[in-house]
Design brief:
single chain, alpha+beta, Double Stranded RNA Binding Domain, three-stranded antiparallel sheet, 4 helices, elongated
């Protein structure tokens, strides 16, 4: 397969463009007579549950992270209507698809617990002492009667 038929998501995942389905519809919003007659809005759909490109681990991660964009049948829906041409909206939808999938597949590094350094503990205590002193100095001076 050539680079034109495969869509690179990250180093581990390449999605065939044949898995992506596109549908054009009329775009809403202002724009005069042109917007009422041309179908420039592009809707991209991709079957997450039926894609052979994903491993089971990747599939579970995508289904969890993008749950609000995936319907009950396991199909991801995206729409692009920011440009006036269907071709540009198609490219924008594909780019948004790549970014969403890349973000969903990102595995965060596990956090390693660390302890505060001795100097930072000393600095914290020093600032507490200083703050206490400032507040103590604001008090009324006791009168000797």
């Amino acid at each position: 397969m050539t680079d034109e038929t495969l869509l690179a998501i990250n180093d581990d995942l390449w999605v065939p463009r044949a898995e992506l389905d596109f549908r054009a519809s009329r775009s809403g919003g202002p724009g005069g007579q042109h917007v009422n007659t041309s179908s420039t809005r592009v809707e991209l759909t991709w079957s997450v549950s039926g894609s052979p490109s994903l491993t089971e681990e990747q599939r579970a991660r995508v289904l969890e992270k993008l749950a609000n964009r995936i319907d009950g049948d396991g199909v991801l829906h995206l729409a692009a209507s920011e440009h006036r041409s269907q071709h540009q909206n198609r490219d924008a939808a594909v780019e948004r698809f790549r970014e969403l999938l890349r973000a969903a597949l990102h595995v965060p590094k596990p956090r390693r617990k660390t302890r505060p350094t001795r100097a930072s503990r000393e600095q914290r205590l020093q600032s507490k002492r200083h703050r206490s002193e400032v507040k103590r100095m604001r008090r009324d001076v006791p009168r000797d009667e």
